[in-house]
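Weekly structure sync, notes
Attendees: PL (lead), two postdocs, one rotation student
Agenda item 3: pending single-chain targets
PL asked that the sequence for the first pending target be pasted directly into the notes so everyone works from the same version. It is reproduced below exactly as submitted, 244 residues in total.
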Amino acid sequence: MQDKVVLITGGAKRVGAAICRRLHASGAKLMLHYRASAGEARLLQAELNGVRADSVALIQADLLDLAKLSSLVDQTVMRFGRLDALVNNASSFFSTPMGEIQPAQWDDLMGTNVRAPLFLAQAAAAPLKKSQGAIVNISDIHAERPLRNYVVYSIAKSALTGLTRSLARELAPDVRVNAIAPGAILWPESGKSDASKQVLLDRTPLGRIGTPAEIVEAVRWLLRDATYTTGQVLRLDGGRMLDA
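Predicted structure, written out during the meeting:
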């Protein structure tokens, strides 16, 4: 990844920050997008620029603002002179039980998980084709196994899987497009009990949640080494898809 330029959405914390650290350690330059996590974004930028000066820039945007999406790509190319990879990591996640779903919830979940990746990919297509680059979308195993009470989120991630495959066909042979479908990686910061965590672990053949490092390594592999792979969804779920 030496001197490759990566635009990553939602890169300020949790798995997004882990992806930034790993790609940066591999030599990449980063345009780190954030929406509201300005403090975390600036700290991460300072940390990584302390390792390699001027290698990480920040860009703030609400991905629901369609008019702002192309500027993320434009400013990345303006800042670094090229674009080699797009990682669509940012995602809204909240419950939408049947009978309580509101149009604004649909707009939010579909906007961050499907619409933004589509229009970012469209804006990035030309510079990515020039660099023979790649796109990685962060999906979810619930794209295939809907999560109860998360109707719209599950639909959105399913659509992201379809988008991944469609973009792989549309942008070939110049740009590879793949997705990662994680299971439980980082336990939610709130709203989940220890009992529900144990139920999930009991249904996971490997008997544990995953780690950000495992997701990060998959992202790096898809961007750098998976040169004959496109249109694929890589499941990183500890075997949960085996549970009927």
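Discussion points:
- The mean pLDDT is 92.
- The longest helix spans residues 103-131.
Action: rotation student to compare against the earlier draft before next sync.
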